[in-house]
């Protein structure tokens, strides 16, 4: 197929710093059928940490330079001009501001282009959102009859958004996908990470991966770590993600105050997440709210690691009976879940981990998720063509 015959799919996303939505976009683009589709990305802010990685896939990445909390007319017109130059066959927004931008383009052009929204989180309360974001969420509810489909990566999030006015008839749930060829069990990773951390080969590692943000509730993780440490002196805790490092004074103070300085390893943002994850004995999502379909949970399960997660978003559905589910914002419950997984022993944890990996391969493989996206694109464009022919 010639380049001119390929379907141009424009993805509009708020920014490209490492996060669940951003990583899912990257994974989707990495597996998309390039003989059939020609993807393009616009980041409303800058290239972040993933812009260069997406560009390395030979995918154009454009940035607008909009500053958070400082809307200006010039970047808006720059965005509209950029999209008009791209001339997409289909536009897909990612996250609230990306969805709004996609709809803004639709309103600015005479071309009939299918618009998709992609909502990437649950919505327990608008009080958890910044004022500007909450306003956009409510505005989108009023506009939700406009896109062809509203995609959600979580059943929970779909129901929550429908309750505040998002059109139920537009709902389509496509979960996150995971590559079981990248996230694999690895004895080598277990050994090398322990050597890197300078802990014993028999040290039991409990880890959390995710950017520092109130919704991720790292404080809950640290409080649970303090509770568990009183009983298990050989446990070590691994924390990785943007702003999870020694420069984070709030986090460091909490760790120091709870006397965990020699037990907690702050690794910052890493590129070797598959290696770090495979080294864990127990993986955790401690989120308090807002979590949709936690990538880190699926990645840990794909690595054969047993998980203890808070019941936020679709985490309970992802884990099923292969791990432990606890209420959010309950450090004692999280610590008890860890204790249960410790006490059943390494062999039983490995059995749970094997079942977890099987669950990911059978239900949430990246290839199957990519096919769902591509099938949707084809369906919408076929309907558009049929509509044009009939008129």
Report on the structure:
- The protein has helices spanning 20-31, 51-55, 73-86, 95-108, 131-143, 155-163, 187-197, 218-229, 249-257, 273-278, 295-302, 315-319, 331-343, 345-363, 366-390; strands at residues 7-13, 37-43, 61-63, 90-94, 115-119, 149-152, 171-173, 204-209, 235-240, 264-266, 282-285, 306-310, 324-326.
- The chain is α/β, with parallel strands linked by helices.
- The strands form 2 sheets. The chain has a 7-stranded parallel β-sheet, with helices on both faces. It has a 6-stranded parallel β-sheet with strand order 10-9-8-11-12-13, sandwiched between helices.
- Helix 8 links the parallel strand 8 and strand 9 (235-240).
Summarize the structure.
The protein is an alpha/beta fold and 391 residues long. The protein has 15 helices and 13 strands. 45% of the residues lie in helices and 16% in strands.
Distance between the termini: 28 Å
How helical, in percent, are the residues? 40-55%
How much strand? 15-25%
Largest sheet: 7 strands, parallel
Low-confidence stretches: none
How many β-strand runs?
13
Helix segment tally = 15
Backbone structural class:
alpha/beta
Keywords:
391 residues; 13 strands
